[in-house]
Amino acid sequence: MRQATENIQILVYAGGFLVESLDFVNVVREKSRAGAEVRILLGDGDSENVRARAREEGLPSLPQRCHSTLEYLWEINDLSRVDIRTHHMPLYNSLYRFDDSMLVNAHSYGAYAAKSPVQHLQQVQGGHLFSYYLDSFEAVWATAKPAVL
Question: Is the pTM of this model over 0.90?
Fold first, then answer.
């Protein structure tokens, strides 16, 4: 994340660890000022898909965690090159793109994202897996709404 210079793209429901443990707000502030494009997709905490995931994982606070993450990120929402949206889609994978590197956190029924496997992908000439997940990000982005508090 700290090495990214062009693109940071995040697709999660809550992704609270980003703001709670990784100084994400300051990293985004620094990266956007340096010219990186930052697009963040958070789950709409009021959506049925988020509530269903909360029940499936036994994590009733998930909708509140979505709202909380948005509150943390709100101070960077007006920065140039930063766009935060909320989505209501079922989330099969959390995606974390940093330039030509991507972390794909596969979700399994009944398991927290933090307990699920993560794949590290690199964008390579002629490869298809990186663009496959990037297309998924773009599909959700197209349905998402600008974030509001």
Answer: yes
Positive or negative: CA dihedral 72, 78, 80, 84: positive
Separation between Cα atoms, residue 73 and residue 78, nearest integer Å: 10
pLDDT digits (tens, 9 = 90+) for 1-24: 999 999 999 999 999 999 999 999
Calpha distance 92→105 (Å, rounded): 9
Tell me 85's DSSP state: E
- The alpha carbon torsion through 72, 77, 83, 86 (nearest 10 deg) reads 50
Q: What phi and psi, each to the nearest 5 degrees, are found at residue 125?
A: -55, 125
Q: How far apart are CA 120 and CA 19, in angstroms?
A: 21
* Mean pLDDT (the chain, rounded): 95
